[in-house]
Design brief:
Elements (H helix, E strand, L loop, with lengths): L2 E10 L3 E4 H4 L7 H8 L3 E4 L4 H16 L8 E5 L10 H9 L5 E5 L5 H14 L5 E8 L10 H4 L5 E10 L4 E9 L7 E4 L3 H5 L8 E4 L1 H23 L6 E4 L6 H11 L10 H4 L6 H11 L8 E8 L3 E8 L21 H12 L3 H6 L14
Parallel strand pairs: 4-5, 4-6, 11-12
Antiparallel strand pairs: 1-7, 2-3, 6-7, 8-13, 9-10, 12-13
Helix pairs in contact: 3-4, 8-9
The chain binds coenzyme A.
């Protein structure tokens, strides 16, 4: 039977670091609140478009696998913050890496976009449609953050990571997964202002307002990530003791601790990046996976569990068997262009562009949504 082994991996974090103290210069917040409530100390802010982050991560993953763009059959771009909608973003990466033979498409399930993309790439390899796939998780949330809202502005950061999947007869890669969506709660995490609907409602392009019920998302994230993980483990008859490393989506340290407790995973076997990168939405889980491998936390042939959660509210959990190789075959020289601004300068630039009067900002809250699950604020 064909499987899809992870034979290449790479990440790209923009260099500019936004600290909790930086956030406190323009928001009523402080390091103590953010650290104790979320576990976050700092996050990255990108000085380049999302595709640039994705290309560097992709080049590193390809070099790691010992292939070049010509070999790639499929590019999947997991994101909810695309640079533009037409053409799609996957084709932007495809063109830059020289994957002339490849198919390319975008996947958006918010924070779980990479994980859903991994399932699609895995399935298309296993069913014989393609022989390999480059799966990317990338996010440029800084551009559409509502920087006036401390409930959300402290939680997110930018970044990208990619894995290269190759067909193999060995039982490697995704062994089983659970995908689900709590669509009845889709309205509790909504970015108002992104999408064609808003132009018809008279909202100036680029203005955003986040609907965000943090406590309810917290509760459902713990439930969803735990239940999905227990489902995958029971279906594969794998016990949590057999899982060498849990690499979860990182929205909040306390969510991760609660999921670890409910699934019986000791925190020593949970890989954390939340303190230094925050929540990079769809880039979070793949960045953590790549960093776990790069820092020697992934043993050859070991089992990895990856629970994730995001807007939608989508949720997932993947059980993965790592292959025999934990070191790259080659190292790419791909790099981002240098960044001359601090993260705070970049953020203040975005804030200046988005300044709107109180009346305009309040207009968001009067918008009526036609679809089920909408609300008028
Ligand atoms: C958002 C989250 C960190 C809030 O933590 P919490 O312990 O639930 O905190 P609460 O919501 O009870 O807020 C407590 C108080 O802190 C305030 N507060 C919120 N953000 C703050 C900030 N950045 N700095 C200081 N105070 C803040 C709130 O206004 C509230 O004040 P009030 O009691 O006067 O109204 C937490 O609920 C969470 O992580 N939720 C899920 C994250 C998520 O949705 N991620 C994206 C999807 S994956």
């Amino acid at each position: 039977m064909t499987h899809a082994a992870i034979t290449g991996w790479g990440k790209c974090l923009p260099p500019a670091v936004l600290s909790n103290a930086d956030l406190a210069t323009f928001l009523p917040t402080d390091d103590e609140w953010i650290t104790t409530r979320t576990g976050m100390k700092e996050r990255r802010i990108s000085h380049v478009p999302g595709i640039e982050l994705a290309v560097v991560a992709a080049e590193r993953a390809l070099a790691c696998a010992g292939v070049n763009g010509e070999a790639v059959d499929l590019v999947i771009y997991g994101s909810c913050s695309n640079d533009e909608l037409v053409p799609n973003s996957a084709s932007g990466v495809q063109a830059r890496i020289g994957a002339t033979r490849a198919a390319a498409f975008d996947v958006n399930t918010a924070c779980t976009s990479f994980m859903y993309g991994l399932s699609i790439g895995n399935s298309m390899i296993r069913s014989g449609v393609v022989r390999n796939a480059l799966v990317i998780g990338v996010e440029l949330i800084s551009q559409y953050m509502d920087w006036n809202n401390r409930n959300v502005a402290v939680l997110f950061g930018d970044g990208a990571a990619a894995v290269y999947l190759s067909a193999t007869d060995r039982e490697e890669g995704v062994l089983a997964e659970k995908l689900q969506c709590y669509a009845d709660s889709r309205q509790i995490l909504r970015v108002r202002g992104m999408g064609t609907m808003y132009a018809n409602l008279g909202v100036p392009y680029g203005q955003t307002h986040w609907d965000f019920d943090g406590q309810e998302i917290f509760r459902r994230a713990v439930q969803g990530m735990s239940d999905a993980s227990l489902d995958v483990l029971s279906r594969t008859s794998v016990s949590i003791e057999d899982v060498a490393l849990v690499v979860p989506h990182q929205a909040n340290l306390r969510i991760i601790e609660a999921v670890a407790k409910r699934t019986g995973a000791p925190m020593e076997r949970v890989f954390l990046t939340v303190q230094k990168y925050g929540n990079m939405s769809s880039a979070t889980a793949p960045v953590a996976l790549v960093e776990a491998v790069e820092t020697g936390r992934v043993a050859a042939g070991s089992l990895i569990l990856m629970p994730a959660f995001g807007g939608g509210l989508t949720l997932s959990s993947h059980l993965i068997r790592w292959g025999e190789r934990t070191t790259p075959l080659a190292v790419s020289d791909a790099e981002l262009p240098p960044c001359s601004r601090t993260a705070l300068e970049i953020v203040n630039g975005i804030r200046a562009q988005k300044t709107v009067g109180e009346t305009e900002a309040e207009r968001f809250l009067t918008l009526e949504f036609a679809e089920q699950g909408g609300r008028s604020g």
